[in-house]
Give the backbone structure.
Amino acid sequence: MTEATPVKQKRKVLFLCTGNSARSQMAEGLLRHMAGDRFEVFSAGTHPSFVRPEAIAVMRELGIDISGHRSKSVDEFLGQPFDFVITVCDHARESCPVFPGPAQRIHWSLDDPAAATGSEAERLGVFRRVRDELAARIREFLAGQVC
């Protein structure tokens, strides 16, 4: 008789920002792309709006499709246990609700690319910079995880 290999349960991660329109959406797509086999990934906002077309465009440049994402309220996730709740803006950190269970709270203070002004090329440049900052932080997060 052989012993069954235990199935590792995916850890649950929730990315939070204010509008769930750019930073948290890009973070969700990036982590799912980089380690979706190890994590269940979600994103939400304290005041959800819509997924910014610029976020969709700069993620598409990396071959990551977030065009099917929708902006979600943090209220949709209340009562659900998470292993990690990662806030990607200062406002979300200040107003983040408490989640049950062992959720480790992590905060990454990132500029809001939705606030960028200028030409389309200039705005896309800001979205790319924030996307790349998120990717770097997610790589650091993954390097610290034993999965």
User: Anything to note?
Assistant: The helical segments are 23-35, 53-60, 90-95, 120-143. The chain has a mean pLDDT of 88.
